[in-house]
Amino acid sequence: MSFSKLGLRAEILRSISEQGYDTPTPIQTKAIPLVLDGCDLMAAAQTGTGKTAGFTLPILELLSSRNGDLSLTRFKPRALILTPTRELAVQVHESVRTYGKHLSLRSAAIYGGVGLGPQAKALRAGMDILVATPGRLLDHVKQRSADLSGIEVLVLDEADRMLDMGFLPDIRKILALMPKQKQSLMFSATFSEEIRVLAAGFLRDPISIEVAKRNAPADAVKHSVYRVDRVKKRDLLIKLIEDHGWHQVLVFARTKHGADALSERLNKAGIRSAALHGNKTQGARQRALEDFKRNKVTVLVATDIAARGIDIDQLPHVINFELPNVAEDYVHRIGRTGRAGASGEAISLVCVDEHRLLRDIERLLKRELEKKVLPGFEPDPGIRAEPIANGRRSDSKSSSHGAGQRSGQRPAGAGRTAAPRRNSTSQHPSGSRHY
The domain that contains 60 carries what CATH number? Predict the structure, then answer.
């Protein structure tokens, strides 16, 4: 199937063609017609599947085809896309601008780490599509520079990460500021009971779509584990990079302090490195990411939260310097390599403290990962395991809300399965309401 068969106008198809695309990804093929049909959506899609275009393209089509009262909607955004991090907000807004370049629609992105003034000015000037992190959006609501009463389409992007970062209270406040009659779309890598509880509160009979087995890693990724003592991890990482001549490596650390320390050690070893985490200013985060994309920096050391939204074509290597505390985060991490048919490699440096975490990952993946030991870095069998602090949770709670992060309680309770939206299945001959 080509994009021309999905019901998108010529201006949007022109922008898609200019980007060199002609065939939609599976998530785009499934999501775009449903969004254009006015359905609420629960979409399960891993990073790297093309999900951003899966909602930006139909939103551009819907808004450009509707003739609203401009005198009433001039200062009110018509579509709101909520993202958990600054980086993802920037990435999504860039997608909106890229595919909407031949349309008269206006858009803006607001997030923490930069001044409120220019953002307030853009909001008051009016736009059709607003991309925002929850905390900064509520700041503008309090200052009366943001009015959400005209929202026609709402998107919650990476909903699982929003809950992990404690955004549930903010999301509920934002939902209360919008019309009840609107189209709502939720995109998430996983759908836990907590996500389903949230969905039940604002989605109207959503249709569920899933493009890959839940929590399944990219098939093109080669996985391997190096067993090593905790104190030798840095030296092993340096040796692997130098021996293989790797030129673009994304390394995951558990904490912000650990990311800084590792980046500093790599730089001292002559390996150009930068750290990316929530304590960095927005300017520093953008510079680090751009330098990495342009190969000015060989290694980008990131925490899970800051790395959300990193989108790099054909990233060859992802290294887990420390395993994540939650097995599902391993899938999020390695999803940044092995994209679009390219091969990728995911390497984990595992010490005795992390053996339980490794078992959890293998249980999730339903496979045993290849184990290796590099000569000179053999683990000492006499070293006892030490407890690991929950780095991901402490990272998110200690981050300033200027980074688009707030602390909060995760929701509790049981959810329910989403019901079909309507009886008609004329556009879907199978009659199934789960795509």
Answer: 3.40.50.300
